[in-house]
Amino acid sequence: MIIPSANRLQQVQEYYFSRKLAEVRALNAQGRNIINLGIGDPDMDPSEETINALVKTSMSSGVHGYQPYNSIAPLRQAIARWYNQTYNVTLDPDQEILPLMGSKEGIFHVSMAFLNPGDKVLVPNPGYPAYSAAAKLVGAEPVFYTLKEANGWLPDAQELEQLLSAGDVKLMWVNYPHMPTGAEATAGALQKLVHLALKHKFLLANDNPYSLVLPHEKPLSLLSLPDAKECCLEFNSLSKSHNMAGWRVGMVLGRQDYLQCVLRVKSNLDSGMFQPVQHAAIQALSNSDAWHDARNQVYAQRRQKVYELLDLLGCSYQKNAVGMFVWARVPESVTDVEAFLDQILYEAGVFLTPGKIFGTQGERYLRVSLCMPETKIEEATNRISKHLTSAKTEISL
């Protein structure tokens, strides 16, 4: 390589799924027909009305040029209505809502907007790898706080106080309902974090894209809590809740002065969201409760099939999780979880995600996606069953 890469790239690796899905594609090119239960890529379609809105608007004149960096006003207004109806949160569409081209980009925007080199960022372990990667790319230091199954995958208050006492914490990421574990946080647990943020003067950011997927009760927003707007931002997305992952429609919500900082970064990196996509998003945000219920019924049926697959593997799991994944603990007889899952990939043709990619607290776990038809999940179970039987036969021989 003639031109050396920037030093910051020494701090991060290519995203795990970017590498692993390339591996899966290579196996498929060999005719392996891998069943991918590793990634949360919704396979069901958006509502028919959403697609029709995209098509209709795309055929109109005057919609193919650059768009406002903070989106068209009707989209912000639709998000405000959706947040009020879904989360009982009142937002000013002109000051407290900033649409994004996917919430993942917002993680980097917020990191660029608020973090200086040397600042510390509290990151959940296990948690979404993008939080720590974004911190490293801007020269900040990710500091991991521990989530444990025994504590319901919620932050430990005593540990947080210890980490905060060292100073220099500028930002804390939370993600409830939690990915990868599916744990929900109570209003009380989140309120304690708000109090910590006010006390120690850091920005608390909640990544909230899973709250409409198999929820138990009314979805919860961090911004619904007293004083949250003083120190908090919330991210949301239509990727999971509206089957629109490839459309890249997200949002960040909170105080105007915080969002203006984010916009100063964003406006230097993109040129606005395609207007027909914005009109489609407006339509999607009016999807009926019946539409959401129908999607969740499909996921619930698939989840039962995933439980059967996990029972076959001898895994333990919680049945009260939220979201489009099942997080499961692998039996102690498996010494190397990643190697075990690679064996299943190469010999059974089924891709499951090792929990270690989400942090050290995920070492003994795996994650299974619900984004695959029941018939494919059943086929995956049958393939794994044959693989395990064959492996036992080889051992006995």
TrEMBL record:
Keyword Transferase attached: yes
Family: Belongs to the class-I pyridoxal-phosphate-dependent aminotransferase family.
Cofactors, names only: pyridoxal 5'-phosphate
SUPFAM superfamilies, per database record: PLP-dependent transferases
Name of the protein described by the UniProt record: Aminotransferase
Boundaries of every Aminotransferase class I/classII large domain copy: 33-384
Entry keyword set: Aminotransferase, Transferase
Superkingdom, taxonomy of origin: Bacteria
First-level EC class: transferase
EC number: 2.6.1.-
GO molecular function: pyridoxal phosphate binding; transaminase activity
